[in-house]
Amino acid sequence: xxxxxxxxxxxxxxxxxxxxxxxxxxxxxxxxxxxxxxxxxxxxxxxxxxxxxxxxxxxxxxxxxxxxxxxxxxxxxxxxxxxxxxxxxxxxxxxxxxxxxxxxxxxxxxxxxxxxxxxxxxxxxxxxxxxxxxxxxxxxxxxxxxxxxxxxxxxxxxxxxxxxxxxxxxxxxxxxxxxxxxxxxxxxxxxxxxxxxxxxxxxxxxxxxxxxxxxxxxxxxxxxxxxxxxxxxxxxxxxxxxxxxxxxxxxxxxxxxxxxxxxxxxxxxxxxxxxxxxxxxxxxxxxxxxxxxxxxxxxxxxxxxxxxxxxxxxxxxxxxxxxxxxxxxxxxxxxxxxxxxxxxxxxxxxxxxxxxxxxxxxxxxxxxxxxxxxxxxxxxxxxxxxxxxxxxxxxxxxxxxxxxxxxxxxxxxxxxxxxxxxxxxxxxxxxxxxxxxxx
Length: 439
Fold this sequence. Notes:
Layout: E1 3-4, E2 7-14, E3 19-20, H1 26-29, E4 37-42, E5 45-47, E6 54-58, E7 64-68, E8 86-91, E9 95-100, E10 105-109, E11 127-132, E12 136-141, E13 146-150, H2 152-155, E14 168-173, E15 177-182, E16 187-191, E17 209-214, E18 218-223, E19 228-232, E20 250-255, E21 259-264, E22 269-273, E23 291-296, E24 300-305, E25 310-314, E26 332-337, E27 341-346, E28 351-355, E29 375-381, E30 384-389, E31 393-398, H3 409-424, E32 433-437
Antiparallel strand pairs: 1-2, 2-3, 2-4, 5-6, 6-7, 8-9, 9-10, 11-12, 12-13, 14-15, 15-16, 17-18, 18-19, 20-21, 21-22, 23-24, 24-25, 26-27, 27-28, 29-30, 30-31, 31-32
């Protein structure tokens, strides 16, 4: 396939919209000299999630490489031959799922976290969207139906409302409850009632919904008119009554473990929920203007303003205090968050990190700083960050050595033990980091 500015052509379509197959001749495609075709370019991209133990890189040719805890998605060798023409990857806490160009899905990792999809494999055809939850996955098919697999408690028992799960657009999840946004703007909720699995008391208001966001135990929905409807655990953001008068013209929502932040059309931000998780932003209220984007760790928020500066609030131990690097946070292009740290990609390709005083969440990047140049993308996972450079090199830092490239499998097992140990540790440890060349 042709390369262009580090990208490859992933698909070609004729002027009428017909997708051209790779092995078609010009005659089979009905093309003649002088006809116009349209090419879709694809750059390499990193995929993970703040609760994940693995990171996946999808190359521009659709092949995949992974790093991390080999038992929890960091080893795809068992399915490597199937990983061709991969479009995207989703990562749960312990497994990965890849959507292929033909609409099928390939999974690997911990069986209980969704790494084993054998029971639903025949149904996983014509997949158009894939969602990763704590220990499960859900796929939306072309006909709008839903297929889920993984730990039963993490995907919920949707059998009672299966007939309602038609024409699904998006699925969002708290710790143990789910909300599906349908194409008509209505919402279907199920799962643990204490975590938002019952929305009947607000069902009449859940009309013309355009986005759903979830904390650990509550949901919030943006309506077409910019209003907000919340339900679930009140202390986790399920009760927005105290700020309801300010929740007008809401554009986007972000949620920490127990709080929400709403970005308004005027660039201001409204927060509610547990103050310890960022539900109280009064200390930085005057600075929260011209906000373009909000990112969130488990207990803190970071807002990127139009001038490229960053405003943070919430638990300082989880990245809510960026004063130590504030002078460096200029011309910020992207922000990502692990469970307890933030990473900011600057316009010059450099990366700035802050957050937890302990190094295993990725807040300390000094060990790999010399490698963090010409970075195109950063991607957070549970205990650290991965950076994709313009030369194709992936640099990863955080707990232990989560991404060791080609080092022996024993090193991956070392990461698994390091991951468990760091969650029990009570004090700071040394910094770790590695640079792995991608081929």
